[in-house]
Structures are given as structure tokens and as C-alpha cells.
Amino acid sequence: MPSHPHPKQPRIGLNLAAGGPLGAIYEVGALCALAEVLDGVEFTDLDVYVGVSAGGFISAALANKISPREMYDIFITNKSREVKLEPGQFLKPAYREYLRGAMALPELIGEAFWQFFTRPREVGVAGAFMQLAHAIPTGMFDNNEIDRFFTKVFTQKGRTNDFRSLRNKLYIVATDLDTGRSVKFGGHGHDHVPISKAVQASAALPGLFPPVEIDGDYYVDGALKKTLHASISLDEKSDLVICINPIVPFDARLAPHGHPNNRDRLMRGGLPVVLSQTFRSIIHSRMRVGMQNYSRMYEGADVVLFEPSHGDEEMFFSNVFSYADRENMCEHAYQHTRADLRRRADELAPLLARHGVHLNRQALESDSWLSKKAHDRYWKRFDETPEPDAGIDKLYFTLDQLHHWLNAPHES
User: Fold this and answer.
1) Model confidence over 81-121: pLDDT tens digits?
2) Strand, helix or coil at 42?
3) DSSP H helical ranges for 38-176
4) How many CA within 13 A on the CB side of residue 116?
5) Residues 33, 39, 44, 50: is their CA dihedral positive or negative?
6) Which of 58, 77, 199, 254 has the largest CB neighbor count within 10 A?
7) How far is CA 168 from CA 21, 30, 163, 173, in A?
């Protein structure tokens, strides 16, 4: 009798976009939600992982068998017994950059005066003193701590800091500062670079962190060229690519419980808020153009995107440097992703089923894991000796639960 070939096992890729600390927090929450309700997807055993900037942190951890829930304990609550992440660990001043600038300043001042006095009409005061810009540090914070931290994490308990030793494909994307081209660490010619160093390079957001030197070249944030780089997973013959993009432009008209003067609120936020909105708009429009081309260029493959609502005030205005805000934001991402899955269930179920993935509607409709954790944290606190601010905490908890209930879809 002729043998029947086994059906091809669908290949699944995961692409995690840039987004800074806020993006990493959002991606952890979204992944916790997806891991709960997508049967047939094991997020620590996918075929291809692609990470950009903050997404590089998360994708590298997943490829090293660190689950979304473990990442929640490591990056969000700092309650992991195995990996300790201290607040502000990645925000240490780049003292070497400051010292370099200070040492160069006397010579630069001398050059500025010389140019002005020898060619006053050609150079002018402003032109002469532009020389002093060379003394400005290329980054405020020392990103060597990123390399040190992930080296420690990836060299324990059978994990690896070597792309070539991973069971599945991992690509971390950075931008070559001298050429402007994207480089995928983990690919041919760049797979000898330690994973931790590639993550450091991919997350080197200009202005925040200095460029990272690797093999004589300098690299900065991988999002400068593209946001998701989903084409990398598709080029690896992935049949289904799950994408998480945490950064979208804010639309005040869509904010359901918005501030009455949201448009003024953007202006009152000053330059950082205006730049944030500008940056978000540019990278999001660029990503959308790319997403529209994938269906034409990669016939038979499906790309599923998860991202925040454009009217999401909490996502846009959150203070990610507060640990309380980190927990709230992670739960917010988790609940939003669950709500998004419920809203798109009829659309997503047949698409996912084509690739052997099934939407667990029972898990989707049941009480959520993070809400239970928040509930347990709350009651544990009041079982112990009351704290001076317990009443305020109780109020915040009640309001959070009410907000979640009001925004959850209900059967008519």
C-alpha cells in the first residue's frame, strides 16, 4: 500500500516590535494573554523569533525558554527567585560619555574661538560654537548593563548566550550607524555575536543610550529602518506570524473616558510628548505600509497583529519608571489583548485553525489570571497590618476592577 505523507507541520514565527521600557512591559502582558488562550502555540518553542529594540529583550528570553509568566516575575514585579532585576538597573548614567565630552571641551572651545576670530564673516558666532556639539554625550545612560544582565541570565540553567546553540531561530535587529542598513544578529555572518550584546545594540535608542561597538562597527536601535521586520519571519518560511506592536499614535477622539481637553493635554506635555506622538505616527504609518504588502508578497502565509487602541490614554501617558505603574500597565496590556481576542474571535478562529492553532474560548471568557493575582495581592495586604495608605490602595483597586468590568464585552 502506498504510504501517505504526514501533513506539513505549520511553522510559526513571533515578531516583537520596538517601544522602549513601555513597549517591553506591554509585550509581556500581551504574551501572557496570548499564551493563555491560544492552544497549539508554545511561546517558548516557536520556529522563529524576531526582536527589535525592547522586543529583543523579550524574544531573546522566549528563545531561551523563559515563559511569559516568568518574565512577568522578572521584569514587572521583580519577584523572581532566580533572576533579580533592580529598579533603575538600566538607567545608570553613562559616566564615560560625560567624561569624554568634558575632556574634549577645552580643545573644542579653542577651535571655536580660532574659527570665529580667523573667519568671522564665514563662520559667525553660531557656526563657530557648533563645534561644542561634539562634546555632547551620545547617550545619557550606560547600556553596558544590558549586556551584563542578559549575559548572567542566558548563561545559567542550560540557557545559552550563543545564537548558534539555540534550538530555534532567533534574530535581533539593529541599525548600522555608519550605513543606515538593518543588520539581523543571529543571521549569517552575525551569529557569532553574543545574544546579550545583540540585545544591547538593538535597544541603543539614540540620545538615551550610546551606540554599541561590535566588530569595529557601531549599532543603534533596530527600529530606525522598520518597526516589526515581519519579513524576516516570512523569509524563514513561517506560515503564521504573530506580531505585537506596543507603540501607536494617540487619537484623543477615540479615548472612551478621555480627559476633556486631550488635545491641549498633548500640547501641555511639552516637547517629550510632542516628540513621542510624532515618533509613534511615523513608525506606525511605516509599519502599516509594510503589513499591506505581506499578503501579496508571501502568498499562503498569515500575519496577525496585536497592538493597543489608538485611544488608549493609559498606554500613552503612563509613567513606566514607577514599579506600581509597571504592574498596572502589564495588566492593562493583558486585559486589552484578551478583549481584542474576544472582539476578533470570529475573524481569528478560522485563520488560526489553518495553522493548527485554536482559540480557547472557555479560557478567554473565564476569570483572568492577572485579575486573580491583583485580587490576591489586595486581600493579602489587608490581612496583614494595615498600612497608612491602605484606604487609597483599596480605592485604586476598586476603581481598577470597575474600569475592567465596564470595558469588558458582555452578552446581550
Assistant:
1) 888 887 677 878 888 887 887 888 888 778 777 777 787 77
2) coil
3) 54-63, 68-71, 95-118, 120-129, 144-154
4) 14
5) negative
6) 199
7) 26, 22, 9, 16
Give bridge partners of residue 37 from the DSSP assignment: none
| Distance in angstroms (rounded) separating the CA atoms of residues 356 and 39 | 9
Give the integer Cα–Cα distance in Å for 317 and 320. Answer: 9
β-bridge pairing 358-359 and 38-39: antiparallel
pLDDT band at 376 (very low <50, low <70, confident <90, very high): low
What confidence score (pLDDT) does residue 19 get? 86
pLDDT of residue 393: 43
Say if residues 36 and 369 touch (Cβ distance below 8 Å).
yes
Amino acid at 361: R
A 10 A CB-CB count for 350 gives 9
Look up residue 133 and give its three cell numbers: 556639539
Residues in the chain, how many? 412
33: nearest Cα among 59, 68, 71, 81:
68
**How many CB atoms within 10 Å of residue 155?**
14
Look up cell 513571533; give the residue. Answer: 14
Q: What is the pLDDT of residues 267-297, one digit of tens each?
A: 777 787 788 888 888 888 878 877 888 888 9
Q: Distance between the two ends of the chain, CA-based, in angstroms?
A: 55
What pTM did the predictor assign?
Answer: 0.82
Determine the pLDDT at residue 12: 98
Report DSSP letters for 16-32, one per residue.
E---HHHHHHHHHHHHH
CA triple 282-313-275, angle to 5 deg? 35
Rg of the chain in Å (alpha carbons): 24
Determine the Cα–Cα distance for residues 244 and 67; give it in Å rounded to an integer. 16
Q: Mark residue 357 as left, alpha or beta (left: phi above 0; alpha: psi -120 to 50; beta: remaining).
A: beta
Per the structure block, which three cell numbers stand in for 340? 481584542
Of residues 28 and 21, the one with the higher pLDDT is: 28
Strands 217-220 and 212-214: what pairing? antiparallel
Using the structure block, give the residue that is written with the C-alpha cell 487619537.
251
Among the ranges given (93-97, 204-208, 328-332), the one the predictor scored with the smallest mean pLDDT? 93-97
Q: Bigger pLDDT: 297 or 402?
A: 297
Segment 371-382 shows an average pLDDT of 50
